[in-house]
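To whoever is on call:

I kicked off a structure prediction for a single chain this morning and the downstream step that reads the tokens threw a length-mismatch warning. I double-checked the sequence; it's 313 residues and nothing unusual in it as far as I can see. Pasting both halves so you can look.
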Amino acid sequence: MIAFPRPALGSAWGKRAANRRPITMLMRFLAMLLVISASLLIVNDILRYPLTSDLHAFLWGAERISAGLSPYDPIPGSNLKFVYGPWLGVVLIPATWIPFPALAVIWHGVLAGCAAISIWPIVRQRSLEASLAALLLGTFLFHAVWAGHFEPILVALLVIGIPTRWGPIAIGVAASLKITPIVLCVVYAGRGEWRKMALSIAVAAILWAPALLFDLRNWGLPVVQSHSLLGHAPIAFAIVAIAVLVAAWWLAPTRYGWLAAAVLWLAVLPRAILYDFGGLAVGIRGEPEAARHRMDLEEQHEEVLRDEVRTHG
């Protein structure tokens, strides 16, 4: 997990910070004002979206699969499409038996709970910086809760799974839904954990394989001018994606590896919606506590060595 700084006043850095306390308090107040204002503006924009709109696409996929038809065919009279691994449609077949008003209440409740799970590790840090990060990420995930998209479930899966030995499977399952989460494997690659990377790819491929049984000519969504660079400047999109990939690979062995990988996930999205930015919670959650403690000790050891070289060099 990325720990937000809370310097001790007894340290040299803390004493200097105490001398600048009025400036620090002003900056923290401005940051709080900025994040709260941004969150309110985002919520105001989100409320313009149709409530529960995305759930219709998931149910369409479930109904088509239960009827033995392709879930990837266009939905009549809608610009929404089912573009996910077919297992999602299979899992949601029982949901098609529930009256839609009741199902919508249940679905929104599940999404809200998963959104809370996604940001809870950040909230637990109990600092202003962590609270502001949780507020902003929670606002992005609220977009998915409102629209009825499964993004909070996906993010919660990764937040819970990545710090455990089930991390590669969690990434594989996520990639079987939206493909792009597979780039999170850059952390495994950068650390030389090739088996974990292979496991993630294998899980995603196995869960995607049944899609080959359907007509895929209508699969996919058009590239539009969303929050992704691809719809605005394809060359800039490629440059940024490559640059972030290199940075994520380089940072993989550090405590910032998962955060860099989460940024890469955003950078490669061909269509970025507001709720996609909630995926940064995966990067902030990051390492399990034991691994983070080990990395802290390694960084402290390296700092001591550098100090000795400077002193005796």
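Update from on-call: the warning came from a stale cache, not from the record. Cleared it. Sanity check on the structure: The two ends are 35 Å apart (CA to CA).
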